[in-house]
Amino acid sequence: TPQPPTQDLLDFCELFGIQHHYFEVEKPPDCVSLTNSLIFDVLQICTDRQSQPCFLHCLDGVRVTGMIVMCLRRLLNWNSQEILGEYSRFLRNGEVSSKEEELVIRFSADDQLAPWLSEAR
Questions:
Q1: How many CB atoms neighbour CB 115 within 10 A?
Q2: CA triplet 38, 43, 45: central angle to 5 degrees?
Q3: pTM score, whole prediction
Q4: Is the separation of the CB atoms in 113 and 44 below 8 Å?
Q5: CA 3, CA 22: separation in Å to the nearest integer?
Q6: Neighbour count for residue 117 (Cβ, 10 Å)
Q7: Cα gap 101→106, rounded to integer Å
Q8: Which long-range contacts (CB under 8 A, 24 or more apart) does 13-21 make?
Q9: Which residues contact 102 (CB under 8 A, 6 or more apart)?
């Protein structure tokens, strides 16, 4: 999200022993604001068994979260058509931008993430 979490959320996480990770992502209109490096950092946490279960969200629950999940699907060897089809079902207009599609198709973590990702392929 563009803004840090509220103190209420941080207190809740502390009370229940939940690890909280915040990644600032600006939300400029008509632009992909994620970088491969940021996606990799988020996926590193999400794929770490010590971090599971994992709850991933963004401001509107679609664009940023969707991009992260699409990149995870890519690492799990889903084909591009399936990845983009799943993502488009959650978009208001159902259209994936060419910039989003390009980022996902080019995304690669070079097997640097959790070992089970390699096993899952």
A1: 10
A2: 105
A3: 0.81
A4: yes
A5: 9
A6: 17
A7: 9
A8: 19/51, 21/45
A9: none
What tokens were used for 54?
Answer: 């994992």
Burial (Cβ within 10 Å: 0-12, 13-18, ≥19) of residue 13:
middle
By C-alpha distance, which of 57, 61, 68 is closest to 109?
A: 68
Structure tokens at 34: 């994620």
Cα–Cα distances (Å) from 96 to 70, 81, 84, 101, in that order, read: 11, 11, 7, 7
| Tens digits of residue pLDDT in 47-96 | 888 888 888 888 777 788 899 999 999 988 899 999 999 999 988 888 88
Q: Are 25 and 2 in contact (CB under 8 A)?
A: yes
Tokens of residue 15, six digits = 């009370």
State which amino acid sits at residue 16: F
